[in-house]
Q: What sequence folds into this?
């Protein structure tokens, strides 16, 4: 069986990029950094479709070494190891350490340390820890997401898959046409603030301790701490990207105007000179805006992009209103999110697709027009039903034992089909009570 062993990096750096064992949920049985690194390496291997029977980590002479044994073809273990080392090197993830050091130097690292920031007893007192993309794809991603910051609950659980945000995004991807086996390849992301912190309190107003200027000032800038751009360039060009590709992988920049807008806000600041502008000259980062840009002026390829909502925004702020043509109406949220997922999926089918064409195709499917304007009116009745069923799942939530949709997709679909106003999630007997 193929195997490989390699030095992942120097302990003093990796122990700042991986969280301490004691921060994890006790059920994970982490005793040391070897356990933590091994766990996240296993998750990344699984995300990349590499069946590893053995993953172990040892600390020798101030370096952590990773050993992998498993079923892999076409040099996948070598590709994985080379990129794994690169991710945590001084030219990539280690740049986040520079940002953290500067935050501490200026006295703005975890400004409310020792105090709770929300009512969630599981979050407890405010805690911050660097958290680059851990446990996600290393070489097998098919699209990339740019988001705000990872919630502390993910660090505790040791995985993003259990987070409500990713569970909902999986549903959206699946109903946009992504095969179940490929869902993980569209959930790889970079955070503009790579710091795990309590999940509702650090970004929720008025407790916004991760503003746009924080990403721009501490994780962007000179070459020794331009973490965001460096990580984007690396992850948008996986090893198997054909040399003659016109574009990198597509990038979805996630942040609703009504919920967690910091990732599009960073883009607006970082690329203000090249973004489209309104009649007053203001750079625009509107939901469903699509285009292409270079991460750096000298980047080899352009990156197709689309601005999308934060994936959990519909569940948090979505509701039934009298105007289905704009958020927070739940129908608008669902259609916008399905367009965003379809945009990414189209690039898996045609990597050289013009981003404006990709947007038009996605909007035609879910809106019935090329621009994603007005109330969504898909031509296909199954797509109409999909918007209704997903809306029902987001509108009806059960708080315990953990927050989850009250209805399965099949149950929600049945409600939409049998309703007096067929496929209208906000009409008749299936309309939810006012929030």
A:
């Amino acid at each position: 069986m193929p195997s490989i062993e390699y030095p992942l990096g120097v302990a003093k750096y990796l122990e700042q990029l991986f969280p301490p064992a004691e921060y994890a949920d006790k059920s994970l049985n982490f005793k040391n950094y070897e356990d933590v690194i091994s766990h996240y390496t296993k998750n990344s291997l699984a995300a990349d479709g590499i069946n590893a029977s053995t993953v172990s980590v040892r600390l020798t002479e101030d370096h952590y070494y990773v050993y992998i044994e498993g079923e892999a073809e076409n040099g996948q273990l070598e590709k994985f190891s080379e990129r794994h080392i690169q991710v945590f090197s001084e030219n990539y993830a280690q740049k986040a350490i520079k940002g953290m050091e500067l935050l501490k130097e200026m006295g703005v690292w975890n400004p409310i340390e020792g105090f709770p920031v929300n009512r969630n007893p599981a979050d407890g007192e405010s805690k911050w820890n660097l958290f680059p993309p851990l446990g996600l794809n290393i070489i097998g991603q098919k699209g990339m997401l740019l988001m705000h910051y990872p919630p502390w609950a993910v660090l505790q659980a040791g995985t993003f898959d259990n987070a409500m945000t990713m569970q909902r995004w999986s549903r959206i991807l699946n109903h946009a046409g992504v095969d179940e086996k490929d869902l993980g390849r569209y959930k790889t992301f970079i955070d503009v603030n790579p710091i795990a912190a309590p999940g509702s309190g650090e970004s929720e107003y008025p407790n916004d301790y991760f503003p746009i200027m924080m990403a721009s000032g501490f994780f962007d800038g000179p070459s020794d701490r331009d973490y965001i751009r460096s990580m984007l360039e690396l992850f948008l060009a996986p090893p198997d990207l054909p040399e003659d590709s016109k574009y990198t992988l597509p990038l979805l920049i996630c942040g609703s105007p009504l919920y967690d807008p910091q990732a599009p806000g960073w883009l607006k600041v970082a690329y203000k000179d090249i973004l489209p502008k309104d009649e007053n000259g203001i750079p625009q980062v509107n939901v469903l805006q699509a285009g292409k840009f270079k991460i750096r002026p000298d980047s080899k390829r352009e990156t197709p992009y689309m601005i999308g909502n934060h994936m959990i925004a519909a569940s948090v702020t979505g509701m039934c209103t009298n105007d289905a043509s704009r958020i927070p109406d739940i129908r608008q949220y669902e259609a916008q999110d399905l367009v965003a997922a379809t945009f990414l999926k189209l690039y898996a089918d045609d990597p050289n697709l013009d981003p404006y064409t990709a947007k038009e195709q996605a909007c035609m499917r879910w809106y019935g027009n090329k621009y994603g304007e007005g109330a969504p009116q898909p031509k296909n009745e199954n797509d109409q039903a999909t918007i209704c069923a997903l809306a029902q799942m987001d509108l009806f939530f059960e708080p315990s034992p953990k927050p989850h949709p009250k209805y399965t997709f099949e149950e929600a679909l049945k409600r939409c089909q049998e309703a007096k106003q067929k496929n209208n999630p906000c009409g008749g007997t299936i309309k939810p009570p006012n929030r």
